[in-house]
Design brief:
single chain; 151 residues; alpha/beta; five-stranded mixed beta sheet
Amino acid sequence: MSFPLPDPMRQALAAAREAAEAGEVPVGAVLMLDGKVIARAANATRTDNDPTAHAEMRVIREGARLLGQERLGGCDLWVTLEPCAMCAGAIAHARIARVYYAASDPKGGGVEHGARVFEHPTCHHRPEIYSGLGEGEAGDLLRGFFAARRK
């Protein structure tokens, strides 16, 4: 039995599709507070010539700007790909409460793979982590994007 994806993940996947159309790696993210979307973003590293312009970093920056604070406690982050170590570090510093991600990233992930940022004793904040929501669709987007570039 298949269940419909929660709206925040559907919005993150829409942002990921927009990223792919712009020639960016298809990753999208949504930041929620009290059930409302605070920010939505897609990867823009090539567009912005900024290696830190990952979807997660962009929604964290926008959320902090809109809320007028550097701590985003109580916020939920929905993202289509397992955050890398850089993004996981920013999530910890921002004190984001929960992270929902679609596809795992065995090569570049920093949550359940690679650096496993939240498992380090020096990590001051560990969000709740939920993975696999929308994994198939997110994985298909990523595989299709990279397959088209290998031709």
